[in-house]
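User: structure tokens for Heme oxygenase, please.
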Amino acid sequence: MTRIERVKAATRDDHQQIDDMVMAMKPFDSRVNYARFLKMQYCFHRVMKPLYAAPDLNDLIPGLSSRSRFDDVCADLADLDVARPKDTTPSAAHMAAPQKGPGRLGWLYVCEGSSLGAAFLLKAAGNIGLDDTFGARHLRGHADGRGRHWREFVAQLNELELDEAEEAEFMQGAHDAFAFFHGLLLEDQRLAA
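Assistant: Done. Predicted tokens:
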């Protein structure tokens, strides 16, 4: 199995839990629900932004800095006149993306994987009058196409030389990224109750 196949298998349950929770909040039934989803996206992409800008990661993964969707999330919030959330939420404050080490690659895997699955979400956003030019910019695919963009990223990650300890950090980083988003979902549920 390749590195990406291994991390995908290891995080399948994490990923499914997130998908189920997001769909349960019905983000595309109304703009109110979508705004809740968008705030979580903001919190996640805000912690990801330094990883996309990290010089050492850009050396390992050329073009990484151009992949960040943080600015698009901010524009989507502005489109809908939704205030940016505070920098931390109680459930997620204990965890942030690591600022060094191979664990960051696991976080990037999760973030980039979410852009691949966003094609379905972008289509659903049309139900509430949003598209890739208004309110749902962060869900749009890359100009080169989602599939091609993802395959390039996968190839870059699979080609990296990591020792056993670094592989473990990479895997833990992916689990931690899913756990961070899970914390955002739990906080949203608490606030909505």
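User: Anything notable?

Assistant: The helical segments are 3-10, 12-24, 31-53, 55-60, 70-79, 103-125, 146-159, 164-192.
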